[in-house]
Specification:
2 domains, alpha/beta, 8-stranded mixed beta sheet, Amino acid ABC transporter substrate-binding protein, D-Maltodextrin-Binding Protein, domain 2, signal, 39% helix, 10 helices
Length: 253
């Protein structure tokens, strides 16, 4: 009888939970360490922020890892709830909703030390070849690439982009500074990584967000709740602590 009463009590408690307590959201993730990676603690710094912001609203995140171009297409077609992390473009806004900013990063130019690249304006780089990882937006480089003033060498990933740079197949590689330095530390021998440097001036400052598919009616509510969860992290001091951990290297392998 005691066992029966205990079972009934547990059943009542379960039924009394709010409807959102067991909610899940499925997000396409990708390899962009130290921010995102299947092999990093918490799946990387940005993934950790996203997980905790949704968790603060009673939502569990399931991550599936894909190449970036495929992840974006899955959001467009609605075969996943959304993806992280992306910058807003007019084209993406046609098929996706965007949350508040998860993180921001400055894009700099990586190049060979032997190249001694100096520039102040994009026009100073006309006639050169740049690398760009597949799935990355062109951003400030779009006009120069479309006009043919700068040749764009699309690479399958960041590692390949650096490899092409080392082989002399591109002149520079625009990339988020923290991402570039992480890949050089983790993927290349020190004597090879030492051959590459980056510009002191910033090409572009980008804000990155979660984008959710417009194909799913509940996603407007998901954006609102994610933003509310993010504010909770900020007010509690957890977001500031995560940022300190990031710069201390605690999201590296």
């Amino acid at each position: 009888m005691k066992v029966l009463r205990r079972s009934l009590l547990l059943s009542c408690l379960f039924l009394a939970l709010p409807a959102w307590a067991a909610e899940r959201i499925r997000l396409a993730n990708g390899e962009w360490p130290p921010y995102l990676s299947a092999t990093l603690p918490h799946y990387g710094y940005a993934s950790h922020i996203v997980s905790e912001a949704f968790k603060a609203e009673g939502i569990t995140v399931q991550y599936d890892f894909y190449p970036w171009a495929r992840a974006q297409e899955m959001v467009r077609t609605g075969t996943t709830d959304g993806s992280l992390v992306w910058s807003i473009t007019a084209e993406r806004e046609k098929f996706a909703l965007f949350t508040d900013t998860v993180m921001a990063e400055e894009e700099v130019l990586f190049f060979l030390k032997s190249r001694q690249l100096t520039w102040k304006r994009i026009e100073d780089l006309h006639g050169l070849s740049m690398g760009r990882a597949l799935g990355s937006k062109l951003g400030v480089w779009e006009a120069a690439v479309k006009s043919g003033a700068i040749h764009n060498e699309t690479t399958i990933d960041i590692y390949t982009g650096f490899s092409q740079l080392l082989a002399g197949r591109s002149d520079f590689f625009p990339l988020a500074r923290s991402v570039g330095l992480h890949v050089l530390r983790e993927k290349f021998p020190p004597e090879v990584a030492e051959r590459i440097t980056f510009s002191s001036n910033v090409a572009e400052r980008n804000e990155y967000r979660v984008m959710l598919s417009r194909q799913h009616p509940r996603n407007e509510e998901m954006v609102r709740r994610f933003n509310a969860g993010l504010q909770k992290l900020r007010r509690s001091g957890m977001l500031a602590q995560m940022e300190k951990d990031f710069y201390a290297g605690r999201y590296d392998k």
